[in-house]
Specification:
The chain is of the alpha/beta class. Helices cover 50% and strands 9% of the residues. It is built from eleven helices and six strands. The structure holds iron/sulfur cluster (SF4). Iron/sulfur cluster (SF4) binds at residues 132-133, 136-137, 224, 226.
Length: 310
């Protein structure tokens, strides 16, 4: 047989195999994303029957993915809830006003675009060169809370993911001297709204791949001209570097956030250290006094990673 024909057949077979593999991987990713979001919703009772969920859309990959997944889950959920997508157009120069409405219409989603020129307010009030994010996000928060009330939304969904949550934990430790993360579900600071984070269990790299696959029309997030929060960038880089050297570390930290042992911390508000007395009853959760650190004494894949890093 002609060698050209053989080469051509082989190339076609390889292309077909690659296509099949890519489709398999995307199918796996899709299942994982929907399973993790469904699990987070269930674990924290994020969405209840009859809820109207206001899905905050910034035009970034995370919020597009959140809406996309919630729309799919809505079809299969055993409960009834509605979704309304909300974008706050802060009038930043160059913001492409048509992108989100066009996308949302194409998906048949109920939506609301709130136009408020917070950009000018921030520019007027914050001196050149100073960080604008804190005032900007305070203004945005107030507006979104108000809009939620006006739309009759019972939940406000934000697109923060697992990596955002872990990064926030370290930011609060490093710069705020507090062990405080980002909750999957909490009442808002004005006391009037319940904020949920359905992507809490989702890894950022999965969202990057999903956004590419779904070809979301991403709107760049640097239109305001503000530098991304440098401390957040640095902490994120540190965490990603750990993950590269010790795969699974972000998951371990994330899991630890749901497994806190107050008696082995130092917060007197969480554990009554001042009043404890010996009970005479053995308790595996008590102090192991002169033993080695637990992670050194009983190595496991996760704990040996911790030991290595010390
Ligand atoms: S990056 Fe820009 S839009 Fe985002 S919070 Fe900061 S000032 Fe506001």
């Amino acid at each position: 047989m002609n060698t050209d024909v053989i080469d051509h057949d082989q190339a076609a077979a390889e292309a077909l195999a690659a296509e099949k593999k890519a489709a398999f991987e995307i199918n796996k990713l899709s299942k994982r994303l929907h399973r993790q979001v469904g699990q987070a919703i269930t674990d924290f009772n994020m969405i209840e029957d009859g809820d109207k969920v206001m899905v905050c859309l910034s035009g970034g990959k995370d919020s597009y993915a959140m809406l996309d997944i919630l729309l799919n889950l809505q079809q299969r959920a055993p409960i009834k809830f509605s979704l309304v997508a909300v974008n706050l157009d802060q009038k930043q120069p160059g913001f492409p006003e048509d992108v989100l409405p066009n996308y949302l219409r194409s998906r048949g989603v109920d939506f609301h675009i709130e136009s408020q020129d917070t950009y000018s307010i921030v520019k007027k009030l914050i001196p050149e060169g100073k960080t604008t994010c804190s005032l900007c996000s305070r203004l945005r928060r107030g507006i979104l809370y108000r809009v939620a009330g006006e739309l009759g939304a019972t939940k406000i969904a934000l697109g923060h993911h697992r990596d955002d949550i872990v990064t926030t934990l370290f930011l609060n430790m490093f710069f705020g001297s507090r062990i405080k993360g980002m909750p999957p579900k909490l009442v808002s600071d004005d006391g009037r709204n319940v904020v949920i984070r359905p992507l809490a269990y989702v890894k950022e790299p999965d969202l990057v791949r999903w956004a590419e696959h779904r070809e979301f029309p991403i709107i760049p997030c640097n239109l305001c001209g503000s530098q991304e929060n440098l401390q957040r960038v640095q902490v994120k880089a540190m965490i990603n570097e750990w993950e590269k050297r010790y795969p699974g570390r972000i998951d371990n930290i994330f899991t630890a956030m749901g497994s806190i042992v107050p008696s082995h911390m130092m917060d007197k508000k969480l554990f009554p250290f001042e009043t404890i007395q010996a009970t005479g009853v053995a308790d595996a959760g008590g102090d192991i006094a002169f033993d080695d650190d637990e992670s050194c004494a009983t190595p496991s894949p996760a704990s040996s990673v911790i030991t290595l890093q010390r």
